[in-house]
Amino acid sequence: xxxxxxxxxxxxxxxxxxxxxxxxxxxxxxxxxxxxxxxxxxxxxxxxxxxxxxxxxxxxxxxxxxxxxxxxxxxxxxxxxxxxxxxxxxxxxxxxxxxxxxxxxxxxxxxxxxxxxxxxxxxxxxxxxxxxxxxxxxxxxxxxxxxxxxxxxxxxxxxxxxxxxxxxxxxxxxxxxxxxxxxxxxxxxxxxxxxxxxxxxxxxxxxxxxxxxxxxxxxxxxxxxxxxxxxxxxxxxxxxxxxxxxxxxxxxxxxxxxxxxxxxxxxxxxxxxxxxxxxxxxxxxxxxxxxxxxxxxxxxxxxxxxxxxxxxxxxxxxxxxxxxxxxxxxxxxxxxxx
Amino acid sequence: xxxxxxxxxxxxxxxxxxxxxxxxxxxxxxxxxxxxxxxxxxxxxxxxxxxxxxxxxxxxxxxxxxxxxxxxxxxxxxxxxxxxxxxxxxxxxxxxxxxxxxxxxxxxxxxxxxxxxxxxxxxxxxxxxxxxxxxxxxxxxxxxxxxxxxxxxxxxxxxxxxxxxxxxxxxxxxxxxxxxxxxxxxxxxxxxxxxxxxxxxxxxxxxxxxxxxxxxxxxxxxxxxxxxxxxxxxxxxxxxxxxxxxxxxxxxxxxxxxxxxxxxxxxxxxxxxxxxxxxxxxxxxxxxxxxxxxxxxxxxxxxxxxxxxxxxxxxxxxxxxxxxxxxxxxxxxxxxxxxxxxxxxxxxxxxxxxxxxxxxxxxxxxxxxxxxxxxxxxxxxxxxxxxxxxxxxxxxxxxxxxxxxxxxxxxxxxxxxxxxxxxxxxxxxxxxxxxxxxxxxxxxxxxxxxxxxxxxxxxxxxxxxxxxxxxxxxxxxxxxxxxxxxxxxxxxxxxxxxxxxxxxxxxxxxxxxxxxxxxxxxxxxxxxxxxxxxxxxxxxxxxxxxxxxxxxxxxxxxxxxxxxxxxxxxxxxxxxxxxxxxxxxxxxxxxxxxxxxxxxxxxxxxxxxxxxxxxx
Amino acid sequence: xxxxxxxxxxxxxxxxxxxxxxxxxxxxxxxxxxxxxxxxxxxxxxxxxxxxxxxxxxxxxxxxxxxxxxxxxxxxxxxxxxxxxxxxxxxxxxxxxxxxxxxxxxxxxxxxxxxxxxxxxxxxxxxxxxxxxxxxxxxxxxxxxxxxxxxxxxxxxxxxxxxxxxxxxxxxxxxxxxxxxxxxxxxxxxxxxxxxxxxxxxxxxxxxxxxxxxxxxxxxxxxxxxxxxxxxxxxxxxxxxxxxxxxxxxxxxxxxxxxxxxxxxxxxxxxxxxxxxxxxxxxxxxxxxxxxxxxxxxxxxxxxxxxxxxxxxxxxxxx
Lengths: 338, 616, 319
Description:
heterotrimer; B: four-stranded mixed sheet
């Protein structure tokens, strides 16, 4: 790996984050809405009270959140915040800070989302490779592919609903919702807590894995068929290699390259990618929080979550850029090749 | 009785009762005390003995560790406050920690019951420009400090002194001076006549009002004014929250908040209440969706959800015998909330600036059909902007000539068409009203909250039938649409009135009736009328029980109905199925001691009314 | 002696697909003596490559193999899968058609060569492996450093040499070279082909060379087999066949060459070959045959018979 390749990538990483952060700043402001006023309004209207000093209150909070300052000044503060990963207070959860929300909610979903992404990927890739393999009996595909086609096109939350209904509600085998038993206090250092968390995570993971793994498997199956048509696949067999060596080192290894790019992108959405599932299981995680922040125009929470999201994506892409040449020798760290 | 001896007494008496029960059953005395499932808690005489069911409440530890499910009341609310809420800064509306607050008094409208609480009595000055409140003896903060009238004085002074605090409106506008005559007597001097201050600012009812949340001066006065807004209300390190309430926050995180019964409570100590509550812990969990709420109720995992939609309630009841609602197991499954829904016109925007057009809409709407189609009949229509509560109904009954003359419930397409024609509209080829330039006026109906998804489309369709070019809209920026005046018709609740009409009439404030082009966020319809303003002011200066009230009300409503700034549609219901498995004696229409919503300021009264069944 | 190295008897490779039965190879009988190089020619789709794959037993479902393929007296068709796998590379190996793409793009040459050895039970230490690699690469006239390169770093000719190195790595008796030079440019073609023929000679291998290029065949092989629509039309010594083709198809083929003995490309014959899906009865060449015997050729499929020593032809003309 050349140093210039690395430096170029790092520069690119910063450029992406900065551009995204700027768009992230500009777009909500284009809507021309006033989050503080709106929040007050809903209170006033729904409580049926006139608030003699509501105006004063709006002024106070507008000043508190710095929304009265010129836009360029707000922008500079914001970029500074992005650098320091400090987004100040959330408007709707005042006086909670944005980072506090991101950390305490993000950690509720991160473990199960990471686990389900990796299970989905590993399982989906192996299954897909197996299904696409010309040595697999046809009846296996006939049996497995149709349900996978259905699953892969069903939204995860529907699977979640079905699982909740049968497994949790009817059979009462697993908890219906929550990130961990509500008799427990959140303590990530305790094994008992992790066990409780794991038990609660089974259904959410299953909802994601059933859908995602089917998607990966179908894609991988198609890739396998393509790879099997390649001359090197035929030649590998003509070389009298063992079945498993052909399968893993020649077929799967080559078919794996496009899905790996997909995995990197998927990992980029790690903190908000399960928003519906998490909300159906009442995780109160970042995905649903993001939805709320958009609905309420909670600028700072929105900035925080989206910036973290962009950073995740950029970072995942960056890591992929770094390791891809190791996976595929045809891609080189040099700028271009013939 | 001192703290410790009381606790010892509880232990001894519990053991004694358990022993007696065991003896009666002939069980070996060496066995651990068991719950006798046939024991009926409801029949017990409230006495200074603990209920003989379940284990002894662990009163030594705070915060409390695990507690039995049958003493834990689990309810569903919006996202829990996760312990970071600030008392003075964030919006406490429906946040779920009302249990930590005790007011001067509670009021339950369905049973028309006032519960004098921290206050023993109150008296307005003869000219209505002052109020004296006498508090009970023996009230203590949870840290043991005695409660005094000075705490109230400090709380009100702070609301006036510091800008941008919640629930400061009434105190700022009305209170000239708050002083403690002695430890138990509060004397307020008003800068205007106000016959309602005790009710609007010191009495908890529903989730309404500018209630002054009475706070411990000895803690909050140590916090700098400019730090008040962000100072955490729940902070175990500082022993917060300090309150007079029997419940404190045990644990609060993203998943749940536990409000645990404290070691002691002034009301038990002073004998103001007979015994400590059966509910040892209230656990608040985040609401997810109707379906999950229903499943959790059926599986006895929660006791009380947010209000659910009628068809969900019906199917939930059908699957579980341990559930009931305000109206038992029959429609409408709920009680009338203070929030009647109407179609609110933007009265400064043509053509809805013309009362004829507004009345044409009123005649075009068939309220009963909206209830029948939208809610399968599980609801009632609204004929005024007031909730159907006894005192308001009585007032309306006395102005029947006005409500008969202006009958918004009348469905009459001919009258509607006649009014439109008078207003200069003609129908185009497709049967829609057009103005003299041939333009169809924008008659889209904006649904203020997603909850209106059941009825808003019906309203829009009825308008189309009457020739208004109308669609049901629920954009994400629905509030901006209203504030900017883009929404000609806006479906929303309004009110505030519970025992007298003033709080609702107050919504139509001339000062807030901004012209088009400006944002309007105070007055729900931009409507004003000098005569109406004058009449409303007279009502304000009149005590609710003053005989003059009927005459004033009639005069005011005559103006309101003639102008019809918004057209009443339906009464709003809270449909809350509750579980009777672990706790019974939920308030309902036969026992309406309080409205049953736990997310309201009045939740303490509901919780105190509950009785543990001891069911496993 | 004179036990043929490879003895193919009535080999049928049918693919059972929805549209019917594809008779890609239909009743081919063929012998190949040790040390003999045989050319296998025919139009595209005539079943040459399928037959090569059938001999390697690499036909995938829905394809089937019937008949007898015996190599040194062992019937490959009856071997277990594992025995057949081991036979590949050590008994028969293949030099593939697509030189550009026959190597695994993500593996170093070293591994691609050693994989084959390893899976045939050859255990080598690191230095032995290096020696072996160097030796194999040297045989195919490649520098040793190629071992540590990836396929995309090699030219087409180099890649094809690597496949040749792999093909001979286990010392097989028979090599099937399926148009080994078709993807290369003309100059490289000759160089690679020279290497292959040199190796076959030096190592005393038998080879089946599949191709279109009659000129190349004339230079490289001793015997020639002509396939038409899945059937063997004619076999014989390459010189006799060029001098005196018997089957009308072979005759047309030879006569369409510009000048005998010079490089040239087989240009084809009027008309198109028949579909091998559910083929009609009779001689499949009948529709294009100038010497068709009415009433016979369309009705009866001609059998392959030895009309002179070493000359086999399937045509009613020689009944």
